[in-house]
Amino acid sequence: MEIIKYLGDIIARRIGISPTAARGLLKLSIKDELGPFTDFETINYENLYRVICRSLKKRLVKLEISFYEEIIRLMIDELTKNQSLITMGGV
């Protein structure tokens, strides 16, 4: 679950919310995209990529974050740079 914490912290800094709220936003996006019974420990790179590009993007738009595209690009870049956190089971 480290990658969720890591990405959540980045979101928090970018949009000015608490890290806990940002992680919640990301977790809700995961549930939206992958279903309500998704185990966060089993999420892979492809799943997180899809979550960021679809569900997280929709939530940022609904929150009226004007620079949501910049955040999505940053999240994808960070996800790609930190694939080892997922591959090694550190999600």
How is the topology of this model organized?
Layout: H1 2-15, H2 19-34, H3 45-62, H4 68-81, H5 83-87
Annotation keywords:
91 residues; mainly alpha; 5 helices
Shape: globular
Structural class: mainly alpha
Regions with little confidence, pLDDT below 50 for 5+ residues = none
Order of helices and strands: HHHHH
Please characterize this protein's 3D structure.
- The chain is mainly α.
- It has one domain (2-86).
- Helix content is 74%, strand content 0%.
- It has helices at residues 2-15, 19-34, 45-62, 68-81, 83-87.
- It is globular, with a radius of gyration of 12 Å.
- The N and C termini lie close together (4 Å).
Brief digest:
The protein is an all-alpha fold and 91 residues long. It has helices at 2-15, 19-34, 45-62, 68-81, 83-87.
